[in-house]
Request: fold
Amino acid sequence: MAQAPLHFYFDFISPYGYLASLRIEELAARHGRTVEWHAMLLGVSVMKVMGLKPLMDTPLKGDYARRDLNRGLRRLSLRLARGVDGPVMEPLAAARAFHWVKQHHPPLAGALAKAIYDAYWRQGVDLSTPQAVAAIALPAGIDAAALLAGIQGDEGRALLRNAVDASLKAGVFGSPTVVVDGEMFWGADRLAEVDEWLARGGW
Amino acid sequence: MAQAPLHFYFDFISPYGYLASLRIEELAARHGRTVEWHAMLLGVSVMKVMGLKPLMDTPLKGDYARRDLNRGLRRLSLRLARGVDGPVMEPLAAARAFHWVKQHHPPLAGALAKAIYDAYWRQGVDLSTPQAVAAIALPAGIDAAALLAGIQGDEGRALLRNAVDASLKAGVFGSPTVVVDGEMFWGADRLAEVDEWLARGGW
Reply:
């Protein structure tokens, strides 16, 4: 029987989520696993449920995160068109697009997530409107007009709401979060631990 | 010329600080470095300056931290008399003791920090009073009566206040934090990155 997928939770506005998204599939594949992608909203988990400020607006921690993220980019020799501490887009259109595709073309959800992440962070495209999301280079098999209708309709809204509720019920609060066979790991800096967990079969 | 020490910032009430304290000197020594220990107060940085709740009282994140810490203990085969999510002691007596020793017996400060951490976490001793701190197994060279006077006098209070101010000026907010040649790494899960930073001479 095939093993359960790794569950990868992320917010498109999260630079740490972006960094982890570049490595999660290779990590999973090395252990014979696939990845199920889950777009969530930090605006709900961090701000509404936890009652915290956005990371970059938190005194001291925001300054550290800026330096830490830039250090992470240098380590990966990554050049992004978008600064890690710039204004944050409204992620609803992108997250609804993701969940509409996950519902209607499940095998393409991961490819769409990566395409959105790449457009937003590496290329620096503003994706705060449904039109902008539908206009990126979409994975083959996703029709831009159908996607736009999906983002703007009630279904996309409902799918995202349900997904965010489910992520909170699973205890997920941060981006990225990886859940492996029910075990949760929070943070881009924990991918090595996920790797070790999979190699050893837990501890 | 000898290289600068690693600066290790911690709060005695921090279980992640405790876990890192068990590994920091071995890590530093592998790179020909020593460790300068710095007791700080999360009650000042996290609660007063950052305006956040204590970790264990933060919805979702507290639950995760409990699981994550217990996973970290299992990985190290550590058994502690104190649960990672129990009531938190008042750390002022321990932190004043540390800074009084750092002022008067600088070479013994790290040993005292480790003795306090061991008494509090592994042995489960309540160290919320000056008397309790002075009664632990102290490193040779520290006189219990002199230490008790140091904790209770104005000097210990002033030394701790100055140290906490200095840690905030250095941008330190969390426990543990390691500063290597001006570069800051926050979190017990970043020790591997500190190791790599030292091995590569940065990036």
Notes: The two ends of chain A are 23 Å apart (CA to CA). The interface with chain B takes residues 45, 49-53, 58-61, 63-64, 67-68, 71, 74-75, 168, 171-174, 183-187, 189-190, 192-193, 203 of chain A (CB under 8 Å).
